[in-house]
């Protein structure tokens, strides 16, 4: 009868503390009078930032354009390079003449303030658009030779999806002439790209960071010569063509001189204590966050044994490193296990933003279930391993970043463990 009463008491206690998924994992045990459940809060964690040396920016579904000084990540400059492919390979008749040539820049998102206009430099690529390595990729530090075409004052609006820039007639007529007649460069994709390598964009001064779509295109407006009642025709040459894919990449430069991360070496652990009590994950800035839990073996020193019911990492987002509208906080992290910088041991899980407090920024944090990893650490396994956190890689470059760290004595990175002694 006594055993039955204790069993009912344990079932009620566990039901009030845990989700059903945890109940299924708890083993059956013989109970004694001194049974207890322990919650351990471990806050002696070590956060750090590591900067890497390269980022592949080709093969993405978008390109980046912009120049902005962010107080956390630094002054970032993004300059895209892209080639084109015709929608049709039918040559234009010699009797046609150009009215205008318009560059239509399609964009999918922006970051930072779009209120002010900015100066946009449009350059023609002046060399073959070829890979410089056997991997057939372009890295963030690569560039191609260019020559200037035009400079225009432009402004992007988040509610729109494109901006149009009329290019100089001199450039337009020269390119249009190559599309006409028997000697047209439209005879093949190779002839077309040998004659026109593509475009490059740069920002003069400051601008928002703009995610350009590969739906960007050139639009030729032209008409029949010497006709009284002439009608306008159009021809589109797109970056993303239905016939051929195009090579694109983004050249990135980052200046961190005015940030806590100034003058830092690559592939070196930088403790959060040296950078304003925060660690930085930024795909564009080539940085990731490391998290060392320290020794946990003393937690498991229970003679009769124990069961780790749950282990959660609470990771606060550093105050004043994000903005609800102009610079939203990144919402997802990929978590890996690592022993040495540059050598991942395996994937642990994905962490998502659990709480968002845009108004006061006191209660914004990630919550990560690390039960299996912590259980192994408590039992003495993987003593040299630590967690490696990167912004989730996607088909597009991630324009956001994430700074984790201590905001106060109560809002700090911590590990919360629910431990059941097996008495």
UniProtKB/TrEMBL annotation:
UniProt protein name: DUF4270 family protein
Report the InterPro entries cross-referenced here: DUF4270
Q: Which domain of life is it from?
A: Bacteria
Q: Which Pfam families match?
A: DUF4270 (PF14092)
